[in-house]
Design a protein that fits this description.
This protein is about 45% helix and about 15% strand. It has about 260 residues and is an alpha/beta fold. The chain binds NADP nicotinamide-adenine-dinucleotide phosphate.
């Protein structure tokens, strides 16, 4: 009798918030884990809790995903571990405030973690996933992906990237069994608001989702076959109409001539 093949989920940003909560789901189903973040103490504590609770193997990787070296360190992992069949691209940062008030270095970090790391890690995982024709990438976006917030212009732009990049990958991979899901939460009670111009206690509590509720909904969306999961949105027809409108706008742009209103 052959042993059940190992299955491992690699979760970035697992030291707090959504990533720490998300890591418990695959662990509860018996999957091993690779947890990535900068704060070693937080990762070690979570790893030991998950090992005790579920008997799974948990490896921690301390890496700064705003740096080329940190991204390369994590991107190397899927090449040498073919048990990885899930990548949760969750690590992210936000910068709230007027764009001109944000330090250039903070903008660079935002772009590096939210866009570059997510892209490079998904490419790194896809090699093995496609070769084995199985695997799932979960990209954590955010609702400013479709409605830029003036207090978070750069952050909104990074999350629009996550959504469009994910949509592109889904189209590329439509003939394979590899899944890519975009999860677009609205407000979730995590440390991401700490020290910002919008601390959690200034947001109406009814607009903020509990982190465990969010992380219950996100895999449920995947199980339902959703490509884009909007955990706090009840009327999914809104998404369908938005998606259809984008398709129609794109189709309408394929004319090769300036529109009559320009008088050209
Ligand atoms: N909370 C919300 O309202 C909300 C809403 C929509 C989407 N999201 C998205 O959800 C994701 C998780 O955020 P969260 O709300 O859970 O916030 P969080 O509690 O602050 O968690 C962010 C995670 O990302 C990691 N991280 C940040 N910078 C990193 C870096 N340079 N290198 C490696 N890891 C880094 C952090 O770990 P270390 O600091 O230990 O490195 C931490 O584990 C983000 O992509 C965020 O944009 C959040």
């Amino acid at each position: 009798m052959s042993a059940t093949p190992r299955s491992t989920a690699l979760v970035t940003g697992a030291s707090s918030g959504i990533g720490a909560s998300y890591a418990k789901r695959p662990a509860a189903r018996g999957h091993d884990l690779i947890l990535v973040a900068r704060r070693a103490d937080r990762l070690e504590k979570l790893a030991s809790e998950l090992t005790s609770a579920f008997g799974v193997t948990v490896r921690t990787v301390i890496a700064d995903l705003s740096s080329d070296a940190g991204v390369a360190q994590v991107a190397d992992i899927p090449a040498s571990d073919n048990s990885i069949d899930m990548l949760v691209n969750n690590a992210g940062v936000s910068c709230l405030g007027a764009t001109m008030d944000i330090a250039p270095e903070a903008i660079d970090t935002l772009l590096a973690v939210n866009i570059i790391a997510l892209t490079r890690l998904s490419c790194a995982a896809l090699g093995g996933f496609l070769a084995r024709n199985r695997g799932t990438i979960v990209n954590i976006g955010s609702v400013p992906a479709f409605k830029a917030l003036p207090s978070a212009s750069v952050y909104s732009g990074t999350k629009a990237y996550v959504l469009l990049y994910t949509r592109g990958l889904q189209a590329e991979l439509k003939d394979s069994a590899v899944r890519v899901q975009a999860v677009l939460p609205a407000g979730v009670a995590t440390e991401i608001y700490d020290g910002t111009i919008l601390p959690l206690d200034q947001i109406p509590a009814e607009l903020v989702m509990d982190v465990d509720a969010l992380v219950d909904a996100a895999p449920a969306g995947l199980d339902r076959g959703e490509d884009v999961t909007l955990p706090s949105v009840s009327d999914l027809d809104l998404w369908t109409r938005f998606d259809d409108a984008q398709e129609a706008l794109f189709a309408a742009s394929q004319t090769g001539t300036p529109a009559p209103r320009y008088g050209v």
